[in-house]
Write a structure and sequence with these properties.
There is one protein chain. The strands form four sheets. Strands 3, 5, 6, 9, 10, 17 and 18 form a seven-stranded mixed β-sheet that branches. A six-stranded parallel β-sheet has the order 13-12-11-14-15-16, with helices on both faces. It is α/β, with parallel strands linked by helices and about 375 residues long. Helix 8 links the parallel strand 14 and strand 15. It folds into two domains: about 180 residues, Alpha-Beta Complex (Quinone Oxidoreductase, Chain A, domain 1); about 140 residues, Rossmann fold (3-Layer(aba) Sandwich). The chain is built from eleven helices and 18 strands. Helix 4 packs across helix 5.
């Protein structure tokens, strides 16, 4: 696989405006880095927040896209994946979306790289106005930095299936770890998107008693897919909040869900997640990616009296990406059905519009 002189990316130049195709020179590859051909780039819900200017971390111009899978074009010397496998041109790979320092307090002392003080993210915090330019996945190539953790993939894998594993899947794995889901727990997942689907699958892998999924009248097809993952589903537009709570109590012998995973993360869903959780339970706030404002909480009735734990979940570490990739590759769950739309790179604006219209489940660019 030869290295091109230039490559094209879809660039966000102004918030709220369409992405613009731009051609950049392909950089030389420094020792430890690699150049990857992007073969699949996921359209994440947070990409809409980014393009709309709602993410305070963004600096323009930006190549959006933090969910990516691809093939090695060139390496800066000998390069191996996290298992020690030597990487060669043509190998299919997936990389961790976050680039962490490994030396700050949170990396070195707390061993919690998701909170790295100097964390960078492809397609979010790395603008494209300076070399190496290719810092996001809405592009023909990505410059994968030396610090990035990489997994070599099977040759026959459909790369589009794995894009959600790099973000939604990894974040869901982090949520499972922090919530400490136990065998026999009942888990309620609010939001039947890719994040909720991965949370449901991980909960089942941990031996939970049942997974219940809340969705809306706009999520009918998504809830049908959730049922294929093994979930029991409730359309919140068909029953009011009190009726939903009574249904949960009936399904849990009067206890309520031990773990509530809020994969929607809105000022409306968080209070209900707290209300629905069982005494001694955990509410995992996993769906918040941008500022949402304040949410009123009855500290005595909803928190103290219930001995409730509210757990924030911010992004993920490389181990969570590994767990999500392995789960997707296992074939135990219909992750292939998450991918409902595929677009060429030049139709990135149409792909974003498809997501904004809530059509399908997962849109993927295939540069």
């Amino acid at each position: 696989m030869s290295t091109p002189d230039t490559a094209v990316a879809m660039v966000l130049e102004s918030f709220g405006e369409p992405l613009v195709p731009k051609e950049f020179p392909v950089p030389d590859v420094e020792p430890g880095a690699l150049l990857a051909q992007v073969t699949a780039a996921g359209i994440c819900g947070s990409d809409l927040d980014i393009s709309g200017g709602e993410d305070p971390r963004i600096k323009l111009p930006l190549i959006i896209g933090h969910e990516g899978v691809g093939k090695v074009i060139e390496t800066g010397g000998e390069k191996r994946d996290m298992f020690g496998a030597l990487l060669q041109p043509g190998d299919k790979i997936v990389w961790h979306r976050g680039v962490t320092c490994g030396r700050c307090y949170y990396c070195a002392v707390k061993r919690n790289a998701s909170l790295c003080m100097y964390r960078k993210v492809y397609g979010i915090t790395l603008p494209c106005d300076e070399p190496p330019h290719f810092n996001g996945c809405y592009a023909q190539v990505l410059y994968v930095r030396p610090e990035s953790e990489i997994i070599k993939l099977p040759d026959d894998v459909d790369e589009a299936i794995l894009v959600s594993a790099t973000c939604s899947g990894a974040t869901a794995a982090h949520a499972m770890e922090l919530a400490d889901v136990q065998i026999g727990d009942t888990v309620l997942v609010i939001g039947p998107g890719p994040l909720g689907s991965y949370a449901a699958a991980f909960a089942m892998e941990r031996g939970c008693r049942q997974v219940i999924m809340f969705g809306t009248k706009y999520d009918i097809e998504r809830m049908k897919l959730a049922e294929q993952f093994g979930c029991k589903t409730i359309n919140i537009h068909e029953v009011n909040q009190q009726e939903r709570k009574e249904m949960l109590l009936e399904m849990t012998d009067g206890i309520g869900p031990d773990i509530v995973i809020d994969a929607a993360g809105t000022p409306r869903t968080v209070p209900e997640a707290i209300e629905m959780a069982a005494r001694g339970g955990t509410v995992s706030i996993v769906g918040v990616a941008v500022p949402q404002g304040e949410t009123p909480v009855a500290m005595y009735e909803s928190i103290a009296l219930k001995n409730l734990r509210i757990q924030g979940v911010w992004v993920s570490d490389a181990r969570h990406m590994y767990q999500a990739v392995q789960l997707a590759l296992s074939g135990k769950y219909p992750f292939d059905q998450l991918v409902t739309h595929r677009f060429p790179l030049e139709q990135a604006n149409e792909a974003l519009a498809t997501l904004e219209r809530r059509e399908g489940m997962k849109a993927v660019l295939e540069p």
